Amino acid sequence: MPLRYALYPGCAAKGATPELHQSTMAVIGRLGIEVVELAAASCCGAGVVGEADPEAALALNARTFAQAEQLGLDVMTICGTCQGVMGAANKRLKQEPAVLERVNRVLERDGMAYRGTVQVKHLLWIVVKEVGLQRLAEQVRVPMDEFRIAPFYGCYILRPSWDLGFDDPENPTSLEKVIRTVKGEPVAYAGRTKCCGFPIILEKEAIAITMAGTNMKDAKDEGADFMVTPCPLCHMSLDIYQERAGKAVHANLSLPILHLPQLLGLAMGVPPKDLGLSRHLVPVDSIIRVTEQRRTQQRLA
Amino acid sequence: MRLTFTLTRFHPERDAHPRDEDYRLEVNRGMTVLDALIRIKNEQDGTLSLRYSCRSAICGSCAMKINGTEKLACRTSIRKELERHGQIRVAPLGNLPVIKDLAVDMSSFWSKIKDVTPWLSRPAHNSTVQPSPQSTSPQDSDQFHNVDACIMCGACVAACTSHEVSRDFAGPAALAKADRFIADPREPQAAKRARLVQLEQPHGIWDCTRCNFCVEVCPKDVKPMEAIIRLRRAAIEAGLTSTGGARHITGFVELVQKEGRLNEALMPLKVIGLNLGRLLHVLPLGIRMLLKGKVPNPLAPPIAGIAQVRTIFTQLRQRTKPS
Predict the structure, then answer these.
(1) Could you give the C-alpha distances from A225 to A184, A229, A265, A286, B245, in angstroms and in order?
(2) ipTM metric
(3) What angle do CA A124, A231, B285 make, to 5 degrees?
(4) Alpha-carbon distance A182 to nearest alpha carbon in chain B (angstroms)
(5) What's the whole-model pTM score?
(6) Domain boundaries, position B270
(7) pLDDT, tens digit, for every residue of A54-73?
(8) A200 vs B207: CB contact, 8 Å cut-off?
(9) pLDDT tens, A218-266?
(10) What is the CATH number of domain A133-300?
(11) In this structure, which topology does domain A3-122 adopt according to CATH?
(12) Is B137 found in the same domain as B225?
């Protein structure tokens, strides 16, 4: 019996990080997940729409939830920021009937309504809790045991914890559990729950890249071979801006950054070309060389 | 139960670097971290420095880093910390200079509070403008109640990720304090505007990344980041829309309203505008992204059902801003 969800890809996975969408679609089948993509869903607002107009941000998300509700499915996110924003919006819509009623008054003009029955879950949480680490372990074909892997959570999948309720924000463990299950060694470092700087990277680049650079340098200093993140906005900051971030903190970083499903895919033996790894600005050759060697050895054996 | 407490010790005049020191202590049920620290100081090592006073989460003196997170030692149960982290490590607040051991120098914290003029302005004597009301209604004071609950413990500033890399940032505590005066009906309109003009300067409201650390660690539920967001909204509503931060918000909303989604190919133009120098600065990254297939089609059609999205914005605007 497959687990079924309404996939909310979010803007980044359909825009500047298409490899996130590609790799998600390449791995979910092996984990027993089926999805219906919410093709007509809008942007979640990323916290930015809410800064200007909180009610509009709630209504946008209620519209998305109503679409999932019609399908009778919970929402699966693949972006830490979407998870934070949509989780908080959903909580508010469910707990405050007056807010839900106001929002529904706007939606009903188009014949829509949200009844408040949907749950919003990030792929990371689904893998840990609903697929289960046991099933993931059974699917591992290429153990990642040669790698020290730095988990980078980012902000919105952890804080504020009362809107999320999955990981302990002081001591999150879900990424570490996934890393251990694919036989990698999680790296403990100061930056794993800090901010990547992305929300202000266009207007305050110096601050943002120093934040990103400091976190990557911390990870590198603790011996990380690469980093994995459940948020494509963090990915943009850490990958696209890495060269500049390295200069800002006077370090040669060359630290590959993987999206969560790319790590899962490599470990489950999905061919690298199906994971969009060539789209990164920081090359991931050092990882692929090892995993491909393993795959060839297995084929020969 | 006998427990080990690992405390960060540092005497800047004598030590080159901070060091960890372990203390073993018999603890009882219900003890707080502050209880343990006081006993360690009294019974084992009188040279340990820490700051505390009320022991009841009112004075805000004993904020420190407990197992990596900014907390009031007097309010932190040893048992719960142990359950959560399996150890007790105590260090001084980050982002502030250490005076000795667990006591930090709060002067920069206080000067940033002062910089936001944390008192009501008086209208000029010869002012012809309508005088502001002299009192507030219960609904008004509800609005700034959260912010007034601040006990100035410094936990938010120590946890602030923007402040960590940019020490001139006004920071969450001072900005939350400023928001309180923007919400106060007794503050004259002109003074509110002057405050917002000051706050939109570099190191002000637009330096916050919305990382939520201040919201998470605040022991009094002040939610400083939400106060910063209210200040940003107030700045935009006051017509202060030329900063990169303000342009980020207005441009983002425009794109979502028009297309239903964000398009990363268009965001730099929205934020930077026609500033040639700054566009040339982001261009090399844009080209590298393009070569990697990471630039979305700027002419992509809107999402299915875009009319609904536009209705959401227009309906709400009509509701919130009756003309």
Answers:
(1) 10, 14, 17, 9, 35
(2) 0.96
(3) 155
(4) 24
(5) 0.95
(6) 244-320
(7) 999 999 999 999 999 999 99
(8) yes
(9) 999 999 999 999 999 999 999 999 999 999 999 999 999 999 999 999 9
(10) 3.40.50.11810
(11) Glutathione S-transferase Yfyf (Class Pi); Chain A, domain 2 (1.20.1050)
(12) yes
